């Protein structure tokens, strides 16, 4: 392993950081930590490693920002479909923008999932190019520096581990490959478990339209985050707006004697299904997510309205 880093250390750092920031499950942080330890031993220049990692991260981040700016929420949804933690992806990144605003680009760099989604979401929200470069640059510098500093601080232990793996030869490489494969397998199992939980009975957009047109009592609830509502201010007429993280505060607004339909615009109706399951666990029996969410409603040609509060220029503050 030591010889591998000696020969290809800098390309390994560049490729690993680039691929990890593009959303692939590559272990960029351990590589940065190892590079920091090797920099102390004189095998690398810490400044060179920092600049290479910063450049790789900036390239991938900029590509996602530009994709989000051009294709909007479609890019965010694509990333969430590819994510190994879709439940975390579809909710926490959007909520992060409500909590931290633009600082999400800085703080989110240290949070898996949010780090990847925050960039295209910033583009989709039409954040200014200059603001993105500054905030993303600060976050990237702190993230890269943190990894290198950890490696430098614990360089004795890390160098010992690298030397030990070298003595194992092929067995050491196989051990690392097994650990990495196990990590991916655990995340994949959790992903499948999440999607199995989402198999709640859904209502189609045509069924919902028939319920409304037939005069049936039905409460429609929009559980999209404020960030997504800024990107797309359209909503199903008559829909209430609720925060999925504070749904217990709105229980008094929800009836128990007729249908309640939740909708979002995230992959696999994740947020809507999440809230529906919460209410079912509380004893509600007429609760269903809208299959396909707002996008399916619009694609079916049904009527939508605009929220007055977000009509006009979108604020990213």
Can you describe what's shown?
- It is built from 14 helices and six strands.
- The strands form two sheets. A four-stranded parallel sheet has the order 3-1-4-5, sandwiched between helices. Strands 2-6 form a two-stranded antiparallel ribbon.
- The protein has helices at residues 2-21, 28-40, 46-71, 73-82, 86-100, 104-107, 114-124, 129-153, 155-168, 170-197, 205-213, 226-231, 270-281, 293-299, and strands spanning 218-222, 234-235, 240-241, 259-263, 287-289, 305-306.
- 63% of the residues lie in helices and 6% in strands.
- It has two domains: 2-197, no CATH class; 205-310, Rhodanese-like domain (Oxidized Rhodanese, domain 1), CATH 3.40.250.
- The protein is mainly alpha-helical and 317 residues long.
Q: Bin the strand percentage.
A: 5-15%
Helix content: 55-70%
Uncertain stretches: 309-317
Rough outline: elongated
* Main structural class: mainly alpha
Strand order of the largest sheet: 3-1-4-5
Main attributes?
317 residues, mainly alpha, Oxidized Rhodanese, domain 1, two-stranded antiparallel ribbon, 6 strands
Summarize the structure.
By secondary structure, the protein is mostly helical.
């Amino acid at each position: 392993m030591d010889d591998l880093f000696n020969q290809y250390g800098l390309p390994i750092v560049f490729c690993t950081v680039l691929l990890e920031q593009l959303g692939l499950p590559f272990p960029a942080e351990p590589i940065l930590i190892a590079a920091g330890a090797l920099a102390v031993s004189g095998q690398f220049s810490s400044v060179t490693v920092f600049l290479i990692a910063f450049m790789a991260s900036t390239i991938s981040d900029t590509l996602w920002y530009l994709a989000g700016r051009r294709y909007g929420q479609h890019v965010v949804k694509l990333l969430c479909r590819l994510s190994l933690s879709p439940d975390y992806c579809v909710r926490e990144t959007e909520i992060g923008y409500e909590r931290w605003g633009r600082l999400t680009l800085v703080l989110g760099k240290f949070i898996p999932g949010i780090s990847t989604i925050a960039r295209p979401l910033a583009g989709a929200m039409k954040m200014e190019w200059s603001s993105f470069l500054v905030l993303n640059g600060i976050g990237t510098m702190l993230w890269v520096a943190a990894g290198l500093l950890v490696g430098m601080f614990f360089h004795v232990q890390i160098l010992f581990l690298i030397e030990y793996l070298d003595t194992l030869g092929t067995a050491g490489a196989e051990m690392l490959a097994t650990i990495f494969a196990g990590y991916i397998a655990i995340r994949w199992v959790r992903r499948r478990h999440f999607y199995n939980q989402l198999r709640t009975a859904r209502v189609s957009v045509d069924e919902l339209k028939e319920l409304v047109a037939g005069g049936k009592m039905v409460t429609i609830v929009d559980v999209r985050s404020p960030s997504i509502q800024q990107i797309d201010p359209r909503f199903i007429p008559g829909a209430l707006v609720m925060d999925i993280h504070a749904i217990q505060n709105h229980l008094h607004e929800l009836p128990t004697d007729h249908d309640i339909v939740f909708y979002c615009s995230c992959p696999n109706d994740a947020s809507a299904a999440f809230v529906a399951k919460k209410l079912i666990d509380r004893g509600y029996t007429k609760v269903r997510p809208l299959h396909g969410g707002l996008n399916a409603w619009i694609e079916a040609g049904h009527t939508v309205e605009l929220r007055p509060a977000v009509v006009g220029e979108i604020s990213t503050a």
